[in-house]
Structure formats: structure tokens, C-alpha cells
Write a structure and sequence with these properties.
The chain is of the alpha/beta class. The protein has helices spanning 18-27, 50-56, 77-83, 98-107, 152-166, 184-190, 199-202, 209-216; strands at 5-8, 33-38, 64-69, 87-90, 111-116, 134-138, 172-176, 194-197. Strand 4 (87-90), helix 4 and strand 5 (111-116) form a beta-alpha-beta unit. Helix 2 (50-56) runs parallel beside helix 3 (77-83). The protein is globular, with a radius of gyration of 16 Å. It starts with a strand and ends with a helix. The protein binds D-xylitol-5-phosphate and zinc ion. Zinc ion (ZN) binds next to strand 2. Zinc ion binds at residues 9, 34, 36, 67, 176, 196.
């Protein structure tokens, strides 16, 4: 089994010290920095925008993985890319033309991701397979950190794993929401190659980050 990429969600970090927190997870062995962008409209919470992403960029050389939970989303894609996003992921429900949005993300020079909510069918992937670098399976309903993992999403990960393998697709298969040391191995067994974790990485403060990340990697 391959070691999964660990993508700490800074939603669970101390927002008063964001730069420090990003440096701390970078030093603690994180693979990517997961940035949850919420607009209070697509999801019932408001977080951070492109200016904050730009301010954080000098604090880490890890890939910035921007998970956009905003609608409409298209008009903000360029701003997030310019702010330093390496991966930009969006929900199909957040705009009228998923295929166009994904193409545009790649045109901007970023990697493109599709995010599936717990009730979003996997078939949405079928006609955008050539246009994605990442599939993100939400194992909670988006909007908040600290929620419980929805077990049915393990089956969804398995179905997507098969779909990708059937055509030799190398997209990253990422899972997000309620991931912890107890369920991380189930995600990997189901076929996930990257895991987002907020609470499970940031619990215990900076001294615990390295051990928390190591535990999630199953090392
Ligand atoms: C939820 C976000 C997640 C979340 C993860 O909308 O996309 O990234 O913050 O946090 P935990 O790991 O605490 O569920
Ligand atoms: Zn997220």
C-alpha cells in the first residue's frame, strides 16, 4: 500500500497565527497545505479569500491545495491561481459548466480537482476524466471542520478507484472530512492516495503536529 499524502486543513489551525501555523505543518512533514475557502452562500460558513492565500504563500514551499466552496466559482479562479494555488478544486454544483471551469483551471497553469459531496453521484466524473488531476471525496458535508466521518463514502472511494484504474488514470484520489488515526487506513485501503485532515493534525498544538502527521501516514 502506498503512503498517502497528508494535507492538513488550516481551517483547524489558529487563525490568529496563520503564517506560523503553515510553517509549523511544513516543518512537521505535511505534503500539501489544504485551504478551505467558504463563502457563506454555497456552504454555511465564511473563511478565507485569495488575499490570505497570497499572504501565506511565502510561508511554505509545499503545494497549496485550494478547496473552493464558493458559488459562483468561475470569477474567482484566476485570483486564487495568482495568489499561489497549485491545486484548485471545485464542486460541480458551484457553477453551470463544470467542464469549462476545469479547462480554465488548467489553462491558468494549476491542477484541476472535482469535489464530490456525500450525495453527489460518481457518474459526474465520466465526461471530465480527461480534464482532472484530482478527485476529492467529501466524507462530511462541507462547511465545518470537526464533523464525523460518513462511512458510506468509503464505498464511493472504492468505486472511483476502480474507475480511475480501469482507464489507467493517475489522478490523485483525496478524501476530506473527519479523517483521523482510526479511519485513515480504511481510506487508503479503499484507494485514497491523499488525505485532508484538520482536527487530527492540529490537535495538541505545534509540538504534536509531526507525530499526528506520522500517525495518519500509518508510519
Ligand atoms: C469541510 C472542509 C474540510 C475540513 C476538515 O468543509 O472541507 O477540509 O476542514 O476538517 P476535519 O479534519 O476536522 O474534519
Ligand atoms: Zn476541504
Amino acid at each position: 500500500m502506498t503512503t498517502p499524502l497528508i494535507c492538513p486543513s488550516i481551517l483547524a489551525s489558529d487563525f490568529a497565527k496563520l503564517g506560523e501555523e503553515v510553517r509549523a505543518i511544513t516543518e512537521a512533514g505535511a505534503d500539501w497545505v489544504h485551504i478551505d475557502v467558504m463563502d457563506g452562500h454555497f456552504v454555511p460558513n465564511i473563511t478565507i479569500g485569495p488575499d490570505v492565500v497570497k499572504a501565506l504563500r511565502p510561508h511554505s514551499n509545499l503545494p497549496f491545495d485550494c478547496h473552493l466552496m464558493i458559488s459562483p466559482v468561475d470569477s474567482f479562479l484566476e485570483a486564487f491561481r495568482n495568489a499561489g494555488a497549485d491545486y484548485i478544486s471545485l464542486h460541480p454544483e458551484a457553477g453551470p459548466h463544470l467542464h469549462r471551469s476545469l479547462k480554465y483551471i488548467r489553462q491558468l497553469g494549476a491542477k484541476a480537482g472535482v469535489v464530490l459531496n456525500p450525495a453527489t453521484p460518481v457518474e459526474i466524473l465520466d465526461w471530465v476524466m480527461d480534464d482532472i488531476d484530482l478527485v476529492l471525496v467529501m466524507s462530511v458535508n462541507p462547511g465545518f471542520g470537526g464533523q464525523s466521518f460518513i462511512d458510506s463514502q468509503l464505498r464511493k472511494i472504492e468505486v472511483i478507484r476502480k474507475k480511475l484504474d480501469a482507464v489507467g488514470h493517475h489522478a490523485i484520489l483525496q478524501v476530506d472530512g473527519g479523517v483521523n488515526a482510526q479511519n485513515a487506513h480504511k481510506c487508503v485501503e479503499a484507494g485514497a492516495t491523499a488525505m485532508v485532515a484538520g482536527t487530527a493534525v492540529f490537535k495538541g498544538g505545534p509540538d504534536a503536529y509531526a507525530a499526528n502527521i506520522k500517525q495518519l501516514k500509518g508510519l
